[in-house]
């Protein structure tokens, strides 16, 4: 498995609302079209209203690359910049866990 944790900081409350709408539209397309994207979870951060955390888990690195090549993801990557003041990305090397069964 291959994963990411991404922390986004929005410019202001208006930008956060627009970013959340973009995330919702993109998430629908990910759910409908990406069977190898195992988890694509978006969280608000308690006490930090402008921050969002994404947790993404893919079957493997090929699944991540397929995700990144999707038109809806490329549109998200381009459009998101207008709403953000910061992005931090951590690539994750899966060790163990509960909740996702994957056959190789």
TrEMBL record:
Keywords tagged on the record: Monooxygenase, Oxidoreductase
Keyword Amino-acid biosynthesis: no
Coiled coil location: none
Source organism, top-level taxon: Bacteria
Membrane spanning residue stretches: none
Domain ABM: 2-94
Sample GO molecular function, one term: monooxygenase activity
InterPro entries for this protein: ABM_dom (IPR007138), Dimeric_a/b-barrel (IPR011008)
Identification of the protein by name: Antibiotic biosynthesis monooxygenase
Organism for this UniProt entry: Streptomyces humicola
